[in-house]
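It is worth pausing here to work through a concrete case rather than discussing structure prediction in the abstract. The textbook approach is simple: state the sequence, then state the predicted structure, then interpret. We follow exactly that order.
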Amino acid sequence: MRSYLDFEKPVAELDAKIDELRALADDGSNITDEIARVEARAGQTLTELYGALTPWQKAQVARHPQRPHCMDYIDALITEFTPLAGDRKFSEDEAMVGGFGRFRGESVCVIGQEKGSTTETRLKHNFGMARPEGYRKAVRLMEMADRFGIPVLSLVDTAGAYPGIGAEERGQAEAIARSTDACLMLTVPNVAVIIGEGGSGGAIAIATANRVLMLEHAIYSVISPEAASSILWRDSTKAQEAATNMKITAQDLARFGVIDSIIKEPVGGAHRDPDGMIAATGDAIAQAMNDLRNLDGETLRSQRRQKFLDIGRKLG
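Step two, the predicted structure:
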């Protein structure tokens, strides 16, 4: 069953009307032309809505529960995927998925945050919020990939690193910093894709890549709009204002040079055509990997480092 966001109410009403008309058509009524007219109106309304989304509305789309998640991309794009578990220090973290497989015939290391799609899987994966052991597992996988000359692909989708007391006691900040450093030190190509939310250090820890791609309606920010409004105005209801001022959309970030390219989403968002979205993302990843294929290790590392230094200078 399709889930609608608040601003999609006009489309929801038209879709409900279409369902009613189809039910009547099943009873033998000849209303094919009327159904076609309402479908056209619904499509036009959806196109207009998604052609003028506000930053806050994009945040809602990026968080849509039916949006394809990390494991959906892995299942569709990665063959012979072999997940690896544990950080060899404390435990396994189900929020951070990682392993090795083949992307279009080539070996690849895949790391990503999995949010889960049902109550059971969301609890299992802690809503995609990794603990220190998750980032230490990411470091272990990146070091292994670097040792064997295997490119790294990161699929980013997290509201942020888990902020619990236990995570802080086990060195959350240090684990994120070491993961970010591991990205910077790689001598193999690494490509990151922001597929939903790219939240805070929890995202940058695996997104410090040679190429950073971002879905059209994804968001990427140093803090969530709700948290920012609570800090700045001590009022979480000003999240919409915060989202606008923070420049969290793919379009703003491409303009600032924070990301390298935008992957267009189907009209109505990735959740309306998951297969098409995943296929388009695969094509974008392949192009990014091909662009980096012939660069030597020191050049990859140097370009990656310079890329992030330049961001600071541009924004400064």
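Step three, interpretation. The beta strands are 78-83, 96-103, 106-113, 152-158, 190-199, 211-215, 219-221, 261-263. Residues 7-52 form one domain.
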